[in-house]
Amino acid sequence: MGSKERYQLLFDKINQYNSGDKGITRVAYSNEEQTCTHAFMRMCKSENLDIRMDSCGNVIARREGRIKGLPPVAMGSHLDTVYSGGKYDGAVGVTAALEVIKRLNEKGIETDHPIEIISFACEESARFGVSTVGSKAMAGVIDKEKYRHLRDRDGITLEKAFALCALDFNSIDDASRKDEEFKAFFELHIEQGPILINNEKKIGVVTGIAAPERFIFKIIGKASHSGTTPMNMRKDALLGASEIALALEQAAIREQENGTVATVGVMNIESGAMNVIPGEVEMKVDIRSTSLASRKRVLDELHEVIAAVKEKRQLEVQSLEISSEEPVLLHADVVDTLKRICEEKDLPYEVMPSGAGHDAMNMARLCPTGLIFIPSVDGLSHHPNEYTPMDVVLKGIDVLEQAVLHYAK
């Protein structure tokens, strides 16, 4: 069996674990995700790897090196999905890591350093509203008390979900490896955007991972009858919110050379009706960039616009910051190594930031980290039609293999 056929079989085996009728639904700590995880552990066992599951549900499968005591070179991603997601997000990175091990075993290659596959738990925020739980725990930055009582849409808490998987939430700090040494970590992932496919590039070499700053704004005007209130006497909260949203778009456009983006993802009208002037609107805003300075310029401009709209329309605006994370710049030596590998293999590549978060951003706290992108057809992700041609996936695995061998010697 050739490498392509072998990998396709492995990829298909992973994606048979699915509770959805449309796309793939394998949400964190669910029966389907846990069954998939244990099946993956058996697949690793068949390659003679030493396997363990930590207190957060992360799977670590280790191939020992020739020289005892050297730090491991790790690679991996996640097996959980969003609701009605695609086959590739996360699963590609985990199965690619196992394919690398299969290739090394097939060739009889020993490395000086041990090599680990890590399948991270709960990367997606779909179920509990918080992302990269497993890699946060491994990096020692989990906020246990903040996360304990988070609930899914069925009212099950994160703590209860742990218990249903025979995990003890109170022991989650034991998953931390911040006092251990890693040589390097690599994650292969689909881009989840249109840049590579539009630029006809096979590989994305990621330089940094954008971090979001998120707000809830409440715009308060005065609800009144749409037929009896003259236009010059209205305090329309929706029109105020709309002005703010459009101004936010322009502020982000002015920063697009820095890769900064801004989104109003939610705009809810309180007690909205066709014949009532909107009196209260809630907006949820996401601003993200790999540049803190650029993100701050967008935010400063947003606050200026809000102040102007408040005065112009006689509105009240309440603001609540719900998160402000630091962007992650990836190790320059790792970026240079990945570029060199692409050039040696004559693979067209793009040096680019990642607008989405990944487990790699937490592993970057522990060691030099590389994030390798492969194209997403039509830029689709978190969607049943998510697709990357298998030949392109294999090119990404080739780069991953060479990067791991370079660091594991």
UniProtKB/TrEMBL annotation:
E.C. code: 3.5.1.87
Alphabetic keyword roster: Hydrolase, Metal-binding, Zinc
Catalytic EC class: hydrolase
Residues the record lists as binding Zn(2+) 1: 78, 89, 189
Binding site for Zn(2+) 2: 89, 124, 382
Coiled-coil region: none
Pfam families hit by this protein: M20_dimer, Peptidase_M20
Zinc as UniProt keyword: yes
Entry GO MF terms: hydrolase activity, acting on carbon-nitrogen (but not peptide) bonds, in linear amidines; metal ion binding; N-carbamoyl-L-amino-acid hydrolase activity
Entry keyword annotation includes Ubl conjugation: no
Binding site for allantoate: 214, 275, 288
Cofactor(s) in the UniProt record: Zn(2+)
InterPro entries in alphabetical order: Amidase_Cbmase, ArgE/DapE_CS, Bact_exopeptidase_dim_dom, Peptidase_M20, Peptidase_M20_dimer
Family, per entry: Belongs to the peptidase M20 family.
Protein name stated in the entry: N-carbamoyl-L-amino-acid hydrolase
